[in-house]
UniProtKB/TrEMBL annotation:
Its main location: membrane. Belongs to the peptidase S54 family. It comes from Cellulomonas denverensis. This is Rhomboid family intramembrane serine protease. InterPro entries: Peptidase_S54_rhomboid_dom (IPR022764), Rhomboid-like_sf (IPR035952), Rhomboid_protease_S54 (IPR050925). GO terms for molecular function: serine-type endopeptidase activity. It comes from the Bacteria. Residues 113-250 form the Peptidase S54 rhomboid domain. GO terms for biological process: proteolysis.
Amino acid sequence: MSYPQPGAAPTPPPPVCPRHPDRVSYVRCQRCNRPTCPECQRPAAVGVQCVDCVREAAARTPANRTIFGGVARQGRPVVTLTLIGLCVVSYLLQQVADGWTNALYFVPYFGEQEPWRFLTAAFLHAPNQPFHLLFNMVALYSVGPFLEQAFGRWRFLALYLLSALAGSVMFMAFAAADGGWFTGLYGASGAVFGLFGAVLVVLRRVGRSAGAIIGVIAINAVLGFVLPGVAWQAHLGGLIVGAALGAVFAYTPRARQHLAAVGASAITLVALVAVPVLLYAQHGFFG
């Protein structure tokens, strides 16, 4: 009688990386125990972890935030540099593109039909005065990175854009009062003054001396009345809105910082839209 002889046990396939099935890997992740190839390995305190476990752990880790609720980031002030870049590119286009300035600078009379001018004017500067651009960009870079780091990127961008918009709205309000409907406005000064107002509030909030920024605001306020062609109305509008938003961002308790920042930004935007609408209706622009 003969008995069947057992065959050799099948050899299990070699372990492969789940993300790269064509790569054999005998190294396993310390968290999920899956094979992980050299490209997907990340050093850990003991052994290695796969890139998926590292990403999952990072997503569950609360972001490091400043006392004002902004995400603490290292590296370049991306928003500040982007705003400066947009202003510089726009200035170059003012030199070479016919009609660029005329299409974007703010004139109260044209704002009702072309509302983008309320904001785009903040990215234009006097075409034949490069120091107008230079002074505003130096001022933006001197305070922008500080506020961007303190408030976080989206709060800082909201602060800048709403301050720019407030400058145009305040300029229009005075134009409606004195009949200057055809007086033009361009420059980032309204937005920059909004940043000045926010810096003043932040410095007071953290107990630091605000003498330097008060001096800058005072000097620029005087120059606005002494030098011809300076739109002090836009400076005033930006300063008021920047200080108001800065106060909300800086003084709201941590548990309600995000909600308060979103709410304050939305309310400010609604108010800055409502004022021109009411002024235009009051002066018969809507039929």
